[in-house]
Write a structure and sequence with these properties.
The protein is of the alpha+beta class and 94 residues long. Helices cover 20% and strands 33% of the residues.
Length: 94
């Protein structure tokens, strides 16, 4: 009889029962999305981190993760994301 992942970790579940994540996924809000001259797609999403603040994640279609920052407020996360966008587009400081 095959063992399940849960059994291998010391947790015994009835045969055929699946482990399901109970946490709700964090809501994401797209701040910006654009394609650069090399045809890379950049996307910035804001994620509510609850009491920890708001995270801004920038990803690309060629390498995935690009940059991220956790801020105390949504406004700070948005400012950071817009600054990074101007930097990537070549119109501002890094």
């Amino acid at each position: 009889m095959a063992t399940t992942l849960a059994q291998n970790q010391g947790r015994h579940l009835p045969e055929g029962r699946l482990m399901v994540a109970t946490a709700d996924p964090r809501p994401r809000e797209v701040l910006f999305e654009f394609v650069d001259e090399q045809h890379r797609l950049y996307r910035c999403e804001l994620l509510d981190a609850g009491d920890s603040g708001v995270e801004a994640h920038i990803t690309t279609n060629d390498c995935g993760y690009f940059a991220a920052r956790r801020c105390d407020s949504r406004e700070q996360a948005e400012q950071w994301g817009r600054l990074r966008q101007r930097t990537i587009e070549g119109a501002g400081p890094l």
